[in-house]
Amino acid sequence: MRVVMVVGRSTGGIGTHVAQLSADLRDRGTDVVVVTHPLTAQRFDLGPVRLWWPGSAGWIRALHDFRLLRRLALDSDIVHAHGHQGALLASLSMMSIAPKRDRSRPKLIVSQHNAVLEDSGRQGLKRLAQRWVARRADLVTGASSDLVKEALLFGAGRAELAQVPSPRVPELLEERPADAQMRAKIRATLFSSVDLKEVDLALPLVVTISRIAPQKNLPVLVEAASRLLNPCTWVVLGDGDPDLLTTLRAQAHALGAPVHFVGARSDADQWLRAAEVFVLPSEWEARALVVQEAMAAGTPVVATDVGGLHDLVARAGLLVTPGDPDAIAEASDRVLSDPGLRADLARRGREVATTLPDGHDTATWWLERYAETLLMT
């Protein structure tokens, strides 16, 4: 079976998922080629890759890249597109493709990982594109149940929930959660690595791992940090919009919020193990990989009750209303001030993490869906 993965620019969960799924499918004997933007290929180990993203090498080459993608799609069994950009490009590339004499028409599968938010701009055009894609796809999957419902409303003939696992969860589950003494020791090492010398090592640590992007609602996080009753050090890991980052740092300074932005880090797992609580204030998420990782690390989770986070966190963490800094501050204070609650949430988070699918499970699930889709007429 030959599968073409199509994914646009990604710096986070979608790229991580495509890299893991492609590798696991290849281990099972599937021929997988990834078509993507050069920036995505630079950030993730995607294996065999084609940098045929229209416009990435200049608009003069865009038509040439599109034709190459169309030719590759014609010679495949499955074209599996991820995200809105990938879905639209794959759908366009497969227009009017007829079956070859010795084989059926390649099948189009679309995996949606993100919602189109109300303040994202050009909503009418984006909704029109979503509707067109949903009706052309042989299968649409959503990373959360609301995305599945949306696909059906847009006219998808077949839509299912597809869990997106974090590849880091199994390794985190192999380690024992850090106790208070170990957390303090890990904090000391981490703070030294990012030059947080002025921080009191005795204070508890709150961690957020997030892209610096509007969807993540980080101004609300800074506001919440300024309203905490319990003294702490709050560290945000992640990169993104430099202008927004400048604004956030100015906001933290003006409010006296104990928030430190330290950029993207390769040792994110250790920051989770060192933290008393992990907080994610996003406007919307599917099944955030970092939340899965926090639970596997035994770190209590405070997250907004949006998208797929409800099903993921409800039994193992504290859910709060999105956009409400008081709710985030109150939930974080509860964990920081109650060791018994913290231990209970840590235990329950680990229990949930043990039930999450791993890469092998996910590859098996997808091979079954590929086979079912190929049998469709």
Main sheet specs = 7 strands, parallel
Number of strands: 13
Individual helix count: 16
Mean pLDDT: 94
CATH superfamily name of the largest domain? Glycogen Phosphorylase B
Strand composition percent: 15-25%
What is the element string, with H for helices and E for strands?
A: EHEHEHEHEHEHEHHEHEHEHEHEHEHHH
**Estimated helix fraction:** 40-55%
Morphology: elongated
What separation lies between the terminal Cα atoms? 17 Å
Which structural class best describes the helix and strand composition?
alpha/beta
* CATH fold-level label of the largest domain: Rossmann fold
CATH class of the largest domain: Alpha Beta
Cα gyration radius (Å): 22 Å
Instruction: Please give the domain count.
Output: 2
Return residue spans where pLDDT drops below 50 for at least 5 consecutive residues: none
CATH architecture of the largest domain: 3-Layer(aba) Sandwich
Biggest sheet strand order reads: 3-2-1-4-5-6-7
Structural summary, described in words:
- With 377 residues, this protein is of the alpha/beta class.
- It has two domains: 2-165 and 358-375, 3-Layer(aba) Sandwich (Rossmann fold), CATH 3.40.50; 169-354, Rossmann fold (3-Layer(aba) Sandwich), CATH 3.40.50.
- Helices cover 47% and strands 15% of the residues.
- It contains 16 helices and 13 strands.
- The protein has helices at 13-27, 38-43, 62-74, 83-93, 123-136, 145-153, 169-174, 180-193, 218-226, 242-255, 268-274, 289-297, 309-313, 325-337, 339-354, 359-375; strands at 2-7, 31-36, 49-50, 78-82, 107-112, 139-142, 159-161, 205-209, 233-237, 259-263, 277-280, 301-304, 318-320.
- Strands 3-2-1-4-5-6-7 form a seven-stranded parallel beta sheet, with helices on both faces.
- Strand 8 (205-209), helix 9 (218-226) and strand 9 (233-237) form a beta-alpha-beta unit.
- Helix 4 crosses helix 5 (123-136), helix 8 packs across helix 11 and helix 9 packs across helix 14 (325-337).
- It is elongated, with a radius of gyration of 22 Å.
